[in-house]
Design a protein that fits this description.
Structural class: alpha/beta
Number of strands: 12
Shape: globular
Number of helices: 10
Distance between the termini: 64 Å
Strand order of the largest sheet: 2-4-3-1-5-6-12-7-8-11
Radius of gyration: 24 Å
Helix content: 25-40%
Length: 334
């Protein structure tokens, strides 16, 4: 009998290993990483005189089972040149209890611990992952150290605690200067955290939310609009079995029909000065757009500007499917 032994794939590893919470499966996680479009320069600095920029930093909250953490760490690993003589195969212990918000290093000992600490301080790309539950954080740490001899573990900082406090402390220590290139939020009540994370995002930085219900993405849109946060929506995707690379959704605040009519009338008036026969009338294109653009008629219940617009939540193509989850991606504008 012939037997072939092979390392488990990342998909097999995250699917078949013990779990405390439901993982983000590899097909979903790879779509998330692809959507973030991460490109880091793998070449090391040539000399000490070369100008060193701030490290590329990603925040993941919460850590959960660590499956998405692995995919994100793999995406940034090329930017960090780990010398071969530094041991990356830590031996786990269970001696230390970490306080909320404190960095978690896996309770390990290194053959060259001082060299490892020096290397970690000089990393050009870092993944910060935080979970409110210390047990989830510890479980994810062990899982990631078990994959391919801790291959991607050195690129990650683990924390336990409230991400609001973590972001506030980091901003304070960084003189209120934004430091995050990407923030990935996957937690209950995610809309309550967006306003706390946005100030930490650099201009042009990306915010990605992963939630099981489309209504939760809609809640995020309403929160961003209500607090006038400097975030512009890029896309909403549905992930699920049989959906390749995600299916795009149209999720936004609808326009009140009366407001839309007023805007059209003003535009026509500006374009049609001196042409009384066409003034105030919508063009064919504008009329057709009103037919397909989701909107509601004015109800007469109070001033239009005081009403909360309803949400548009619909797939752009295809039919509804079951399972999976929904991604919302925003980019910071200033």
């Amino acid at each position: 009998m012939n037997v072939t032994a092979a390392h488990p794939t990342l998909d097999e590893f995250t699917t078949l290993t013990p779990r405390r919470v439901a993982p983000i499966y590899a097909s979903y996680a790879s779509t998330i990483v692809s959507l973030l479009d991460i490109h880091l320069d793998p070449s090391p600095y040539q000399n000490e005189s070369e100008v060193k920029t701030d490290p590329f930093q990603i925040l993941e909250a919460g850590t959960g089972n660590g499956s998405l953490t692995l995919q994100l760490a793999r995406a940034i690993a090329a930017a960090n040149n780990l010398p071969r003589h530094i041991n990356v195969r830590p031996t786990p212990t269970t001696k230390t209890v970490y306080k909320a918000g404190e960095e978690y290093d896996g309770d390990i000992e290194f053959e060259h611990s001082e060299e490892m600490r020096t290397w970690r301080a000089e990393r050009r790309a870092v993944l910060h992952t935080i979970d409110i539950d210390p047990l989830n954080r510890a479980h994810a740490d062990r899982l990631i150290r078990s994959f391919r001899g801790a291959l991607y573990w050195p690129h990650i900082n683990f924390y336990a605690g409230d991400v609001k406090e973590w972001a506030a402390q980091r901003l304070e220590s960084n003189n209120r200067k934004p430091f995050l290139d990407i923030a990935v939020l996957d937690m209950p009540g995610v809309e309550d955290y967006i306003a706390h994370i946005t100030p930490a995002l650099k201009p042009g930085g990306q915010l990605l939310v992963f939630q099981p219900q489309i209504t939760q993405i809609a809640g995020c849109i309403q929160e961003i609009a209500g607090k006038k946060l400097d975030l512009k929506m890029n896309t909403v995707l549905e992930l699920g079995d049989g959906i390749s690379s995600g299916r795009q959704w149209d999720v936004r605040l609808a326009t009140l029909r009366s407001v839309e009519r007023d805007k059209m009338a003003e535009a026509q008036k500006a374009r049609g000065k001196g042409n009384s026969g066409n003034a105030g009338q919508a063009t064919v294109v504008e009329k057709e757009r009103l037919k397909v653009e989701p909107a509601i008629e004015e109800s007469g219940a109070g001033p239009v500007e005081n009403r909360i617009p309803p949400m548009v939540c619909r797939p752009l193509v295809g039919e509804l499917t079951r399972g999976g989850g929904f991604l919302g991606l925003w980019r910071k504008t200033v």
